[in-house]
Every structure is written in C-alpha cells, then in structure tokens.
Design a protein that fits this description.
Layout (H helix, E strand, L loop, with lengths): L10 E11 L9 H10 L6 E3 L5 E5 L6 H19 L4 E4 L18 H10 L10 E7 L6 H8 L3 H8 L4 E2 L2 E2 L5 H6 L5 E2 L7 H13 L10 E2 L1 E4 L4 E8 L4 H23 L9 H14 L4 E3 L6 E3 H19 L2 H5 L1 H7 L2 H11 L3 H15 L24
Parallel strand pairs: 8-9
Antiparallel strand pairs: 1-3, 1-4, 1-5, 2-3, 5-11, 6-7, 10-11, 12-13
Helix pairs in contact: 1-2, 2-8, 4-8, 5-9, 8-10, 13-14
C-alpha cells in the first residue's frame, strides 16, 4: 500500500451540512432534488451527496492556507442556497440534529451506503451524524505514523473543542458529543490502532481485507487515519462546526499541530505517545464532559483539564500558525473558550427556552447565517418559543 507523498502542510476540508425545514426546524430529506438542480448548473466537484438524504457535503480544494479553504466552502454554500431557499430549506449543522428522529431518515440509494446499512442494521440506521474532516499533506511517508500517534495525545482536545451534539432525538444525553458515541459503533470506526512501521499497517490492511472486514482502505473509518491516495493525514474526530469561523479554528489548530510534530521529527526528537488505554479513556471523557474534561496528557498518566492544556499549547503553536498562514483563524479559539464550545452554547439556548430543542436548531441556523459563534445568553428564539428561565454562565 503505497503512500502518495504530497506537498507539506497542504490543507483540504470537508464539512457536512444539514438541510433544515424553515417552518418546522426538522430535517428535510431533499438532497436528491437539491443536488439534481445544483449539478445541472455545471461542474460542481466540491458539492456532494452523503449517506443520508438530509445531508449535503461541501469540500475545499487542496489549499496552502486555511483562509483559502474557508473561501472555497463559502463559495459552495453560495451555489447551494439559491436552490434551497425557494424550497424553504435552510442550511445549518452541528454534530447531530437536536430533535429529529434517526429512524425516519432515509439513506441515499447507492450500493455503498445500502451495503453499510444492511451489514450494520440498527447502528447503521442511527447515522444521523455530521462532522468536519481535515486533511493535512505529508511530504515524507516515514513521518505519517509518528505524527498520527502524536496527534492521539491531543485528539481528545480537538474533539472536546468541536463537540456540538448534546441532544439526541429531543433528549439531553448528558454528553458533549453524542455523535462520537454513536459513530464508533460502526465496524472499523473510532480510535485508530497505533503502528510502529508502515509495514505493520500494510499487514493489518491485508488481514482485514482478506477476511472480509473491509473491501478497501476507505472503509477504515478511524478518528484519525492516513489517506494513502491523497498523501495526507485525515482528522475525522470533529463534530460539525455550527459556523464557518469555528471551522477555521479546527482547520488552523489541526494544521499547526501537524506542523509542530513534523518539525519535531525533522529535529530528530522523539514524538510523544500515550498508550491505547489512555487514548480510549480520553475519547470517552471528551465525549462526556467536553471542555470540562480532565484528560490524560502523557505516558506518565498526568492529567489536566482541556482549557488549561490548550492555553499552555498556544504560546508554542501561535508562532507556527503565523508562519504557515493561519494565525488569524487560530486566534478565534479564544472566543470559543470565552463563550463556550458549540455544545455548551446549544445547551444554554435549550435551558433558556420552553421548547429547548427547537431553540437549539434556531441557534444553529443563526450561527450558520452569521458565520460566527453567538453568545447563547443574548440569543432569543422566535415566538412563541418564550424564555423559560435566566441562565448564567458558569
């Protein structure tokens, strides 16, 4: 399995969007109708159907700078919205939809998705899940696994920062990222295995292919995985960001972390690692507690809360972000730490309103339209969804 080395630090982004009915706030299963019109407008290689008919995925071109990726995503949205608006469909997104019923969502009629649902049954029918995927180009195949393993020391922090799925089918789950809990039920999804050498990964792929676990490498759906065809490391742990500014934060932080570890490798330094059992525990803690999680940060088992770790990382990361052209995007991480990650903002909006889940959808719509996070303590849902109680930020 050859790794096609690519330009160092080249960035690609995927963002999964929900189609929301403007009148009910529920999901609209109109992807085929929307995409038929979009595709009739001309060549649209960066707008795609996804597994569910309520979803459209938009992607950037391979870019050197995070800002260029964000511009690509906004251009895609500008193509889609003139089609969806007359249908009374809003584009918005989060890790899942707060009150839609998963069992009612229909699957796009392709062999790939039908086979997945046939194999996985109940869990395959629960994939009402939306994410952001970030690809970072790696110029030397020898770096791929060391950098991937190093990223596993911080991937739970990335998950916590992006968490945006506290509700499921109208119920408060108590989790910051319920998406993370559901997605890992698919075969080959979830936490990646840590390999020392590329040969070990190749042997693993040969084994799981020969035994029918997968038919090709793309069916390995790890939270972080190599993409041999593209020559990238793909970070897939993120819940879908509710607005373009936070997409920029996730992209910039990912690109900067990869460059940070790449420079360590260039200097001949040993890259950090933590045991698989710490990785698994961190994923669960980040899913459950989000930004309030206390995560295991090193092999010795030392623990630290997410915000403290992020603040301690920034003095080293911001100069690198400046050099690779994404400091402006990364600086917005301070806004997230100030007014809360998306799951916190959505939960506050729910707590303040009589119809909490509907208020969450309205906040998703408002943030997507505004292009930035909105302080939930100032957000008012539309009538008749009146305020229920005053909520203060903890």
């Amino acid at each position: 399995m050859h790794f096609n080395e690519s330009e160092r630090g080249l960035i690609g982004v995927e963002w999964e969007l929900q189609m929301i009915d403007k009148d009910t706030g529920d999901l609209r299963q109109s992807a085929d109708a929307v995409m038929d019109i979009v595709e009739s407008l001309g060549d649209v290689p960066n707008i795609h159907r996804e597994m569910l008919l309520n979803t459209i995925e938009i992607t950037s071109k391979p870019r050197r700078h995070a800002s260029e990726c964000l511009d690509d995503l906004l251009e895609n949205i500008a193509i889609i919205q003139p089609v969806t608006t007359p249908m009374r469909i809003d584009l918005a997104t989060a890790g899942t939809h707060p009150f839609a019923t998963p069992a009612y969502q229909r699957v796009t009629d392709t062999g790939r998705y039908n086979d997945l649902v046939e194999r996985t049954q109940y869990w395959g029918r629960q994939m009402q899940l939306y994410g952001v995927h970030v690809h970072i180009g790696i110029e030397d195949a020898a770096k791929v696994l060391p950098i991937l393993n190093a990223l596993l020391t911080r991937f739970a922090h990335l998950q916590a920062l992006s968490s945006s799925s506290p509700y499921w089918a109208g119920e408060d789950t108590g989790y910051a990222s319920n998406r993370a809990m559901y997605f890992q039920q698919l075969p080959t999804a979830g936490i990646p295995r840590q390999f020392e050498k590329w040969d070990d990964l190749e042997r693993y792929v040969e084994d799981v292919t020969r035994t029918g676990i997968i038919s090709d490498f793309s069916e390995i759906r790890w939270d972080i995985r190599p993409s041999p065809k593209l020559g990238t490391i793909e970070i897939r742990v993120f819940d879908a960001a509710t607005n373009i500014r936070e997409v920029g934060v996730l992209v910039a932080l990912t690109a900067t972390l990869v460059e940070y570890y790449s420079r360590m490798y260039d200097r001949g330094e040993e890259l950090p690692r933590i045991p698989d059992w710490y990785v698994a525990e961190n994923k669960w803690r980040a899913s459950r507690y989000g930004m309030e999680a206390n995560l295991i940060v090193d092999e010795a088992g030392n623990q630290e809360d997410v915000i403290t770790t992020i603040r301690n990382m920034l003095p080293e990361l911001l100069p690198i972000a400046e050099e690779i052209g994404c400091r402006d995007e990364l600086e917005h991480i301070h806004e997230i730490m100030r007014i809360g990650a998306a799951y916190q903002r959505l939960s506050i909006a729910a707590a303040r309103h009589k119809d909490g889940p509907r208020a969450m959808v309205e906040l998703m719509q408002a943030e997507f339209k505004a292009g930035h996070p909105i302080d939930p303590l100032t957000f008012l849902a539309s009538k008749p969804n009146e305020l229920k109680k005053e909520v203060r930020r903890q």
